[in-house]
């Protein structure tokens, strides 16, 4: 076939002049036989270059009509959706000439959605880049169906692309920006998706003839032997039916064209705004207006400054910190901006343990502070999370990165530096306030707004946390010691009293028991007490749990505890088993204690109960509930 037609236009192409004359003769004879005629002034014969449907066709290949390029360059900035559609329609007609057309035009195509027409910096950049790309559009080779077609395709995190080639010359380009769920596909699935789209895009060139596919995804070479594991594979493999091709592996660094088409950054991410700290400007003004600071600046510039002074960017520094006079008006502003947002409290909770060396030490009962370093870190993190999540505690996982940031950018008493500075060798970056509207990127704006809300909540919560922390810290920092033979009261939290007496009302349970005599001092901060006979707890306690007896009145709580159950025993006895359950793979029973009301029944671990009361036959205590059957206790 040497000739085709489009409505009222017909054209023919020939390899040689002689062949061209023969083709014209045949075409004119066919027209005459069908009573069709042509105007001589509208005919052109023997042309080496021809304009056809907005393209310039020549022996070199196919190029964009220069008149169309001029039209696009002179196109005014669209002010309506209709005008934007016209511009995209014109440029889209030539998209096969433009590498990465889909990603370049994405900000403009997003504006076609209902209610989304808003001209932004990204849209302006996309508009100008499309114009520039049209002026640099390459000359594409004309497809030769007697030669082998080669398809090179590639995928990246944000898009897919490919190029159709013959003898190392591009015939057409293809690119597609990923959206929605396709952004989260695996690398293999994205590479396979690029292959599917490329083959379907160039179906008229590829169907019915053998061609070669080149990809930098090595596993795609075995596409036909692989086991189908995803629905995407099953859907896409069907689309290859009817095609005859082989897949070759090509390293990514050699697959330049397809790689570039798929990896070009989306303009929405590339065009970001960076907040500029305007709070430094008043400081620069103070440096210029203050006579004392000007004298220091002159010495720095002349190299006569004594000490670690430095003057740069209009600001005076001392030991790499901004230097201000004590009466500077900027001090309150800087303190609020840089200090309040992540302050840990006026007092540090504890000095850190030794930084080098490890020793093996036992801790006393009910005193986790012995492992001080870990406990301090845990308590600090808990404080941060409590401040962040007081309004919604279920979201505590979301705020862990912020807690880590606060901890890593706070100066530690033991090292006199922040963890960030120790790891990276430089101070942490300043956390500046965000002024809404200073960025045009919606994602960045939302992130910074969220951060500002977090900091606002944190400042409010820390005011309360600081006071609470100071109160507890000051209350516990009381140095005290006792002598052997002294009588002291023992403080036990309600939940610890369960090992001493079986459940009473926890809120009304006594806090101190005793007094008990001190038998021995254990280490520097623990004492061994003479507890009542039958007590089932370790007799060594930390000094923080003890209070010295003063005076002659000892009537506090001399037994552990002094309860009357009708028998001369420290612990009540089981009277009946009211129920049974399994919790965390442990058998538990509901025990009705002798001398107590059934309302005071408690759930107890069955094995521990049997060890505690070996002389009591628990099987006789089982009650039948309703019409059910009670099984024997194992």
TrEMBL record:
Signal peptide: none annotated. SMART domains: CHROMO (SM00298). Residues 271-427 form the Integrase catalytic domain. Residues 572-616 form the Chromo domain. GO terms for molecular function: catalytic activity; nucleic acid binding. It comes from the Eukaryota. Keywords: Multifunctional enzyme. Gene3D superfamilies: 2.40.50.40, 3.10.20.370, 3.30.70.270, Ribonuclease H-like superfamily/Ribonuclease H. One of its GO terms (biological process) is DNA integration. The keyword NAD does not apply. PANTHER family: PROTEIN CBG26694 (PTHR37984), PROTEIN NYNRIN-LIKE (PTHR37984:SF5). This is Transposable element protein. The lineage of its organism: Eukaryota, Viridiplantae, Streptophyta, Embryophyta, Tracheophyta.
């Amino acid at each position: 076939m040497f000739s085709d037609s489009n409505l009222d236009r017909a054209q023919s192409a020939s390899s040689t002049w002689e062949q061209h004359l023969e083709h014209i003769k045949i075409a004119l004879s066919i027209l005459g036989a069908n009573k069709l005629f042509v105007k001589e002034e509208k005919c052109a014969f023997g042309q080496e270059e021809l304009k056809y449907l907005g393209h310039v066709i020549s022996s070199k290949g196919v190029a964009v009509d220069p008149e169309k390029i001029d039209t696009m360059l002179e196109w005014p900035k669209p002010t309506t959706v209709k005008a934007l559609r016209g511009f995209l329609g014109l440029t889209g007609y030539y998209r096969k000439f433009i590498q990465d057309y889909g990603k370049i035009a994405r900000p403009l195509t997003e504006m076609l959605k209902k209610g989304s027409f808003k001209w932004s910096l990204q849209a302006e950049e996309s508009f100008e880049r499309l114009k520039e790309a049209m002026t640099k559009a390459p000359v594409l080779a004309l497809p030769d169906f007697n030669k082998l077609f080669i398809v090179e395709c590639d995928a990246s995190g944000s898009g897919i692309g490919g190029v159709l080639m013959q003898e190392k010359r591009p015939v057409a380009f293809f690119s597609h920006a990923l959206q929605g769920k396709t952004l989260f596909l695996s690398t293999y699935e994205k590479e396979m998706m690029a292959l599917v789209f490329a083959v379907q895009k160039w179906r008229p060139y590829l169907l019915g003839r053998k061609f070669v596919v080149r990809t930098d995804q090595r596993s795609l070479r075995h596409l036909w032997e692989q086991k189908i594991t995803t629905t995407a594979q099953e859907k896409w493999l069907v689309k290859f039916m009817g095609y005859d091709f082989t897949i070759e592996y090509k390293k990514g660094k050699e697959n330049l064209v397809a790689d570039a088409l798929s990896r070009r950054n989306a303009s929405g991410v590339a065009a970001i705004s960076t907040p500029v700290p305007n709070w430094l400007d008043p400081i620069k003004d103070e440096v210029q207006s203050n006579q004392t600071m000007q004298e220091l600046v002159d010495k720095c510039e002349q190299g006569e400054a004594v000490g670690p002074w430095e003057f740069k960017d209009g600001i005076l520094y001392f030991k790499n910190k901004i230097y201000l006079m004590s009466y500077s008006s900027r001090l309150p502003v800087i303190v609020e901006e840089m200090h309040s947002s992540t302050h840990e409290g006026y007092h540090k909770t504890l000095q850190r343990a030794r930084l080098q060396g490890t020793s093996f030490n036992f801790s006393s009962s009910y005193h986790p502070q012995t492992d001080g370093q870990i406990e301090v870190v845990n308590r600090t993190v808990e404080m941060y999370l409590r401040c962040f999540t007081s309004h919604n505690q279920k979201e505590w996982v979301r705020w862990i990165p912020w807690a880590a940031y606060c901890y890593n950018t706070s100066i530690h008493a033991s090292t006199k530096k922040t963890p960030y500075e120790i790891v990276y060798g430089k101070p942490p970056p300043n956390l500046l306030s965000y002024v809404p509207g200073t960025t045009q990127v919606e994602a960045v704006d939302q992130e910074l707004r969220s951060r500002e809300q977090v900091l606002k909540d944190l400042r409010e919560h820390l005011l309360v946390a600081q006071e609470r922390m100071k109160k507890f810290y000051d209350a516990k920092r009381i140095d005290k010691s006792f002598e052997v033979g002294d009588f002291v009261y023992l403080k036990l939290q309600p939940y610890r009293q369960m090992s001493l007496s079986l459940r009473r009302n926890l809120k009304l349970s006594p806090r101190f028991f005793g007094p008990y005599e001190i038998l021995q001092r254990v280490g520097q901060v623990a004492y061994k007490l003479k507890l009542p006979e039958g007590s089932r707890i370790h007799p060594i306690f930390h000094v923080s749990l003890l209070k010295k007896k003063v005076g002659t009145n000892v009537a506090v709580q001399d037994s552990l505890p002094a309860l009357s159950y009708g028998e001369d025993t420290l612990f009540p006895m089981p009277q009946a088993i009211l129920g049974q359950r399994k919790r965390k793979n442990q058998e538990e029973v509901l025990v009705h204690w002798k001398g107590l009301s059934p309302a005071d029944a408690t759930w107890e671990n069955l094995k521990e109960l049997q060890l505690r009361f070996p002389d009591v036959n628990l099987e006789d205590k089982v009650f039948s509930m309703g019409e059910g059957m009670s099984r024997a206790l194992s």
